[in-house]
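Protein 1 of 2
SEQ + STRUCT:
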Amino acid sequence: MQVEAIQQLETCASMEKDALRRGTTYIILAKLHLREKAHQKAIEAVDVAQDALSGLDLSVAFQTKLSPMLEPALLEIFKGVSLNGLGKKDEAFEMYKQAREIRLNGKMEPVGGIWLNQITLLLDEKMDPDGHRLLDAFKSWTNKERNKFFSYCMLNWKTAFSSILRLFRATLLTNAAAYVLECLNSFGKTLARRSLIFFNLKTSIVRFYKDVCGDLDKAKQTLLDALDLKTTGEGSEEDVIGERVASARIDLAEVIFAQFRVSTDPERKEALVKEMMAIPGMTTENIMRSLVISLFLANMLRIMGPAREYQRTMETLFQLFMDALEDNVAWNDSTSLRLLARVLTAVPGLERDARIAISAQWSVLDRALYERSDGPQKWPKTGAEEDATDEERKGEGTTSANEPEEEDSGGQQEDGEAKGEDSASGVVDNSASPDLETETSSGSDRAQSDGTQGKI
């Protein structure tokens, strides 16, 4: 039936001699072609209408019911829609831009939010990969235009929220979070706090904090504030409000669960479990009232048991090795440092601390403690050191049996004995003094020293 109407209008338009009527008829044809998605024909109809109306004094016509149809900005919008339908997005973007300028230059009411929304939809990831075109367009709008855009998106939540998310993507890519958040808050000041549109705005800001700022704490607080608004409406709007509030509670559960996953503090996790249970509609007596929230809670409870035990075990081990490092015994510090490093590597984020601990095993942590009664002379001896002691005893017996030779050699023998005493205790002394170790201790002596501490 619409096809027949188009054919009849085309016949009438071709026969019409009056320019105003001819232009008006082609505008109607353009609208019908758009409904049929005949985009090329719609563009041709708009071109004919613009030619017919050019040069006419439309002041009288604008005072009649024809005025909305004859507005030049509307014709540019028709072209923009058709060009977008043909896949010519750059040209469509220019048409929408011209429509805005016609309205602004004529000091008329800005174009509606529905057409500003079309501009946002044009600038997708393919056409605007770095987000700059969309954000530059958004910044070029007046405050009134931005508020019209936000108002359209918040009132048409299901169909237009994708435009808000596209704006948030551009905001993140261009690092313009502060500017866009200020625009959102400025729009919120014009709204009634208990209205549905204000509630939708608050939940949009929640997504902004999550997706753009990565701030889960602010996202959760904003959701809690939105749920405390006690939003009201009339008629069918009450059903929409109930649906939106239920959706916001699920969003709150998602935020709490995200905080639970990133937290490594058992006490914090327990507090988040309690917050999940306290969500309106979620109680310990009836946790199945909301299936989605209950699934989040079930996963949290499943994780909490092992997490508590794991934390308790790791804290016990950590304290055990720290006590070993802080006591008055120095000989077991290397072993304690190696074991402490293993504990630290098991905790994500402490890998650098583990490397420091494993490197410190070669150092003397407290030289004063090391040189006191628990010094190297008191440390247990390895089998090699015991064998060296036996050989020294045999050497002393041989020397005492040859007293005349000792008298002949005089001071040289005494020096030799002194040197022998130094070498007998040099295995441990050299490990404590880096300078001494370089000069007198060989690689095998250091390895023997490590083996001594490992056995201990």
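Protein 2 of 2
SEQ + STRUCT:
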Amino acid sequence: MRKLIFKLMGCYLSFTFIMQPLNANEIKNEKQNIVAGSKKLSLEEHQILKQKRQDQVDEENERGELVSNGMYLTTHPMASHGIYKVSALYDTIELNDGSIWCVYFYTDQEVISRWAYHNDQVIICPGTIFDITDYLLISQRTGEVVPVDLKEIEVIIDDPYFMGQRLWINHIDYAYDIVYGCFYYKIRLNDGSIWEVCTRDNAIASLMFPGDIVFVGVDENLGAPTYNILVHFNSLEYVHADCIVR
């Protein structure tokens, strides 16, 4: 009987020893998705904002057309995004920062499959009032444009930096420009970069707080006030901003 008890105790200890690191590994790699737009504007407010932006472009006698080619200007290197994964039907695409985007037209699913096959780098661009979606993904290799909607982000529990690719707001200042006589927002991200927000987007910047996740995009619309945009995950909106320190 004593031999049997010792054998059972040995089996239990061996089982516990084996299971502990497995459980720890499962916790370390645990992932979950968070839905975007927890602070999104109402449909009416959103449409007013889009129309206002279009009116500002028209006032400058610019056409507001997207320049969709492989070359672009940016003030921050993380405006270029790799493709992390795609869904089985190619109707969603996840970028290397964990942002997940829904492909609007099913006819573009074939385009997404080619992008994934060639491991394309893409940029996030804002749509105009004439586009069906608020954002567009553009391949740097081919210049192809795919209308998309920001859906959610993937979160790795033990890796808030998402393999070093995720950006969020560390600090926000409301500063005064003596030269132009106006107030503007200055944003510092977790990578140490500092961004100046265009004054025309102060209303959206007021919705942004420390800890909020942002994605770097590029505005190649003619008449855009900045080279870059910061897409705000919580509101689904963006601000025109350029990186001045990094």
